Amino acid sequence: MSPNSPSADSSFVTSSGSPTQSTAWLALQDLRDEIGSVTLRELFAQDPGRAERFSLEAVDLYADLSKNLITQDVIEALVDLAEHARLPDKIAAMFGGERINSTENRSVLHTALRKPKGQQLIVEGEDVVAPIHRVLDQMAEFANRVRSGDWVGATGKPIRHVVNIGIGGSDLGPLMAYRALASFHQEGLECHYVSNVDPAQLLETVKPLNPEETLFIVASKTFTTLETLSNARSARTWLVEGLGGDLSVVAKHFVALSTNTDEVEAFGIDTANMFEFWDWVGGRYSVDSAIGLSVMIAIGPENFAQMLDGFHRMDEHFRTAPLANNLPVLLGLIGIWYRNFFDYPTHAVLPYVQALDRFPAYLQQLDMESNGKRVRLDGTPVDYETGPIIWGEPGTNGQHAFYQLIHQGSTVVPVDLIGIIDPAEDVGGQHDYLMANLFAQAEALAFGKSTEEVAAAGASPELVPHRTFTGDRPSNLLLAQSLTPSLVGQLVALYEHKVFTQGVIWGINSFDQWGVELGKELANSIIPELQARTEPELDHDSSTNALIRRYRNSRSRS
Ligand code: F6P
User: Fold this and answer.
1) CA distance linking residue 94 with residue 55, whole number of Å
2) Which of 15, 312, 334, 401 has the fewest CB atoms found within 10 Å of its own CB?
3) What atom of ligand 1 comes closest to residue 258's alpha carbon?
4) Is 0.90 surpassed by the pTM of this model?
5) pLDDT digits (tens, 9 = 90+) for 108-142
6) CA-to-CA distance for 516 and 265, rounded, in angstroms?
7) What whole-number distance in Å separates Cα of residue 140 and Cα of residue 324?
């Protein structure tokens, strides 16, 4: 079957109809009306056990969901909605390797990437787990050689700098995990990440580096991505020029992570130095595949294995826990509650953990590339909202920037707050300040400060409305003991499965990304027009034509 023909197994595609037609959806609409007349202050006052009732532990994460605009009835109706969408069957279909990515006719098997060695998963007659561990072993051997100094560059020097060249899922995941696990890095070995086709990023990155001690990892699932291949070619030129002009040096300084052996060979990288993965690993779901090689080099194969174990433990929680006690499911359903019944358009992820500074950016791709869809699996347009806009920055920085809007703006922004109990390092008791701010934000958002309280605190009457906080601004608070490799795996898997849950309810394909294609196509047609020696004939719209002419005529380089 050709990659673009519809899937043989269409049960995933045609299932339960529009969610808006379900009785659960109608019940949720009624509950939305009811909850509009009650505040979080009242809900907490009515139920002294609320914090406990709406908190749960999943693997090593403690999640306090009590500061959401939810009641037991809301949770039950949301779970009904998930059952109406046959979420348990869909979870089984994904884990079992059914071709649920119907528009690309592919299985979606990132969960297999973290299955323990020795387990099997037979998909269409073949075990997928053994090849995964073959590649993991190959990665571990290579990572150990780089870490020990046994792998040397063309002039015999050990590697001190690793530059991962990739974009999207081939950049955001490894970059996020590398930064998250800074306290596990091997000293004297630094990783850098280059993604943008803007040459400034590559040039800036390599400027202080010695080519003799630099290893480039070209990370691209397809090995055809303009940004990555352009940066890889420029990096190759920099390396070869820096090491005397002989192309043979590439073998010791370039490795590839890809599914595309032919293109890797065509680029000039020895396929012995290629670490493969498979078309059933989506780019944004690939940090735990060979795409994580830079992370493995930085933290070592044992810690990388711990990360995979964290992923796997969260997978098992998602696969086996009842829907009402299933953390990814609950996060997904609560997100649906706000997106579809409150019309809240965005969702912020605010880690109170500096090491997770790239986690929101990572989640932007994971969530928005997965669920930013306007048609259902069967191609019909949705008549309800789908994926929210995901954004965020680490606390407390955001508090001094955009939290004003979160507390008092006219748009309500549901937030995820993430905190770690034991930091890798502390100084001057600052970690307590950080955590005090985390807890305070959740409290302030939920309960606000009423007009009466503001007035009683002595505010002048004209300032009272300005200083009032309405409260009822929802948050999920995730707390964990320490930021270990396992926890990073758990967090990523948690959000992967949250996104899956929402995609199932919305009946969309969370695993394709056709929306990125048009811009790529048009850019490919404009590149020769910018580079033509003679004035090209342009047949874009008048605005695009004028911009291209202006650029050609105004640039100072020839
Ligand atoms: O443009 C979107 C995208 O296809 C992402 O889904 C992917 O993560 C990224 O580009 C990079 O793709 P590749 O790894 O094939 O270079």
Assistant:
1) 27
2) 401
3) 14
4) yes
5) 999 999 999 999 999 999 999 999 999 999 999 99
6) 26
7) 39
